[in-house]
């Protein structure tokens, strides 16, 4: 969960940010929602020179493919996302594609999935682009969709030693009907401390013993 202050609260620490950089480097693509793109304006890059070099040595692009989702198509051409890294793709609706076709000309592929954003169509298209491992950065609406549709294979949940009380703060996930309901216990794959943060890894499709 993040806060609602004008300055973005960094919930993690340097070691955990480096761990995330490693996960990004090991991924074929990184996905972020349009709302998070507008609010945070991230570059979404692999920062480590060594990790980028290792990708190239393995025959991969220096940077993973960057993908985003927007139903409205309201994404500014000046966002940092479009101007750093390698290839980008945006998944949207028919109406959104009409807006983005000119806005993102020369910056990203624009793919319409129909009247609504169809996550199945999106994943099929990513597969044709050679994406076998997709890292979903968020935000909460995207997490909710992936979890409620049973599309997530693994959750990395970093618990930071902070108490946030803002009622309107973004959440990891929002109300939805999740597979198995509230009694479904996900399988814990591992737990480790990363500085003052605890990283929990869960397999949402598997049942805890």
Describe this protein's structure:
With 209 residues, the chain is of the alpha/beta class. It has a domain at 14-150: Dihydrofolate Reductase, subunit A. Helix content is 28%, strand content 24%. The protein is built from 6 helices and 8 strands; from the N terminus they run αβααββαβαβαβββ. The chain has a 5-stranded parallel beta sheet with strand order 4-3-2-1-5. It has a 3-stranded antiparallel beta sheet with strand order 6-8-7, with no helix packed on it. The relative contact order is 0.17.
Sheet with most strands = 5 strands, parallel
What name does CATH use for the topology of the domain at 14-150? Dihydrofolate Reductase, subunit A
What sort of overall outline do the alpha carbons produce when their principal axes are compared?
A: globular
Number of strands: 8
Strand content: 15-25%
CATH domain class name of the domain at 14-150: Alpha Beta
Q: Radius of gyration in whole Å, from Cα?
A: 17 Å
Major β-sheet strand ordering = 4-3-2-1-5
Reading the helices and strands in chain order gives: HEHHEEHEHEHEEE
């Amino acid at each position: 969960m993040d806060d609602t202050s004008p300055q973005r609260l960094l919930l993690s620490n340097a070691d955990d940010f480096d761990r995330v950089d490693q996960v990004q480097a090991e991924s074929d693509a990184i996905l972020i929602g349009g709302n998070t793109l507008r609010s945070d304006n991230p570059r979404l890059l692999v920062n480590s020179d060594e990790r980028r070099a290792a990708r190239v040595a393995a025959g991969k692009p220096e940077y993973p493919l960057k993908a985003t989702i927007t139903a409205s198509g309201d994404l500014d051409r000046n966002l940092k996302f479009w101007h750093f890294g390698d290839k980008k793709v945006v998944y949207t609706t028919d109406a959104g594609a009409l807006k983005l076709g000119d806005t993102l000309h020369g910056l990203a592929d624009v793919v319409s999935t129909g009247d609504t954003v169809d996550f199945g169509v999106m994943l099929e298209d990513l597969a044709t682009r050679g994406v076998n491992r997709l890292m979903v950065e968020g935000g909460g609406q995207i997490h909710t969709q992936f979890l409620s549709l049973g599309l997530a294979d693994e959750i990395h949940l970093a618990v930071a030693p902070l108490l946030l009380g803002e009622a309107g703060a973004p959440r990891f996930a929002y109300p939805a009907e999740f597979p198995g309901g509230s009694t479904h216990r996900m399988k814990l794959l591992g737990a480790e401390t990363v500085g003052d943060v605890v990283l929990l890894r869960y397999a949402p499709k598997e049942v805890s013993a």
